[in-house]
Amino acid sequence: MNDVAVSLSQHLRAVAAPTGDLAIVLGQLAVAGKLVARELAHAALGGRLGTTGGINVQGEVVKKLDLWANDVMVQALEASHLVCGMVSEEMDEPLHLPDRCAQAKYVVCFDPVDGSSNLDVNGVVGTIFSIRPKQGRGADHLKIVPTTPFTSRFDGVDAFTLEPTIGEFIRSHEKIQIPSRGHIYSVNEARAPVWQPGILRFVDYLRAPDRATGRPYTARYVGSMVADLHRTLLEGGIFLYPAEAGEDAKSSGKLRLQYEAAPMAFLVEQAGGKASTGSERILDIHPTSPHQRVPVVIGSRDDVVRAEEFVAGRH
Ligand code: P6P
């Protein structure tokens, strides 16, 4: 008998907490993912591309679809009646829902359309989010890109692909294990002049030909974290948005802890990889502000360890 396809809703019933509350929130987020996927598929035909003319709290140009997707996420989470707070790349301040707090269990942090600079050129974008218990630590993370979300509940990472003809996310990858070492490095090389010195030496090491150690690596950079991390999870390698030094430097890198670095770090660790700032485990960082930035060095365990050794000056 062929394996019957496992849908996201079946999977959630099997893995979510007995109360099913987590499955309800994740199910709402899957609906948001389907709506975002449908909008992205038609945006170029419906005049929905382009910018709003505004600049967000990050200092970045806001795309029409950034705001639209943010509204979709907020409405989907509100409708769960289980979320009492939200942090979004597109909202200056956290959104607090006091009327939900009595029964709500979760706070959700999200980037509605990560990589939105790719939107107008039909590039890969996606929604990143993490679900945190209202109090205390711990987290369940689920990243949805328009076609493939990952879910992780402390026992590995499965990926689901949206089957548009039936409107269901169907499991396409089970228990993803990231290779211990890769052959791809992914970084915006235009920032090399301001990288911290250890990172510059590390990337030069990856570029240097040496057959015995499988170098040089090849370079791939989409400019969309979800795309670069999706590839890294499946094929291995290393993605970096490192700390910078000097003129016009982003001393803490560019990526935001709450809704980019931490959710991705959780998935990569669950798949057997490693995620650090170059010197500190990302998931050990206690957030101090909603839009806090952190340097990111993430991917195959051996590659991240090697990068950390360069940052520490041991190479
Ligand atoms: P840069 C997209 O804006 C994003 O937050 C990530 O998805 C991506 O990895 C990074 O920024 C790209 O930044 O400076 O290389 O354009």
Radius of gyration: 19 Å
Structural class: alpha+beta
- Tell me the name of the CATH homologous superfamily of the largest domain: Fructose-1,6-Bisphosphatase, subunit A, domain 1
**Are any ligands bound, and if so which?**
6-O-phosphono-alpha-D-fructofuranose
Whole-number count of domains: 2
Along the chain, the helix and strand elements come as HHEEHEEEEEEEEEHEHEHEEH
Tell me about the biggest sheet? 8 strands, mixed
N-C termini distance: 55 Å
Q: Can you identify the CATH class of the largest domain? A: Alpha Beta
**How much helical structure, as a percent, in the residues?**
25-40%
> What would you say the CATH architecture of the largest domain is?
2-Layer Sandwich
Summed up:
29% of the residues lie in helices and 23% in strands. It has 315 residues and is of the alpha+beta class.
Commentary on this structure:
With 315 residues, the protein is of the alpha+beta class. The protein folds into 2 domains: 8-173, Fructose-1,6-Bisphosphatase, subunit A, domain 1 (Fructose-1,6-Bisphosphatase, Chain A, domain 1, 2-Layer Sandwich); 184-311, 3-Layer(aba) Sandwich (D-Maltodextrin-Binding Protein, domain 2), CATH 3.40.190.80. The chain is 29% helix and 23% strand. It is built from 7 helices and 15 strands. It has helices at 8-15, 21-42, 64-78, 197-207, 225-235, 257-270, 301-311; strands spanning 51-55, 61-63, 83-88, 95-96, 106-114, 126-133, 140-144, 149-152, 157-163, 168-173, 184-186, 218-219, 238-241, 274-276, 296-299. The protein has an 8-stranded mixed beta sheet with strand order 4-3-5-6-7-8-9-10, sandwiched between helices. The protein has a 5-stranded mixed beta sheet with strand order 12-11-13-15-14, with helices on both faces. Strands 1-2 form a two-stranded antiparallel sheet. Strand 9 (157-163) and strand 10 form a beta hairpin. The longest helix has 22 residues, at 21-42. The protein is globular. Residues 114-115, 117, 188, 223-225, 254-255 line the site of 6-O-phosphono-alpha-D-fructofuranose (P6P).
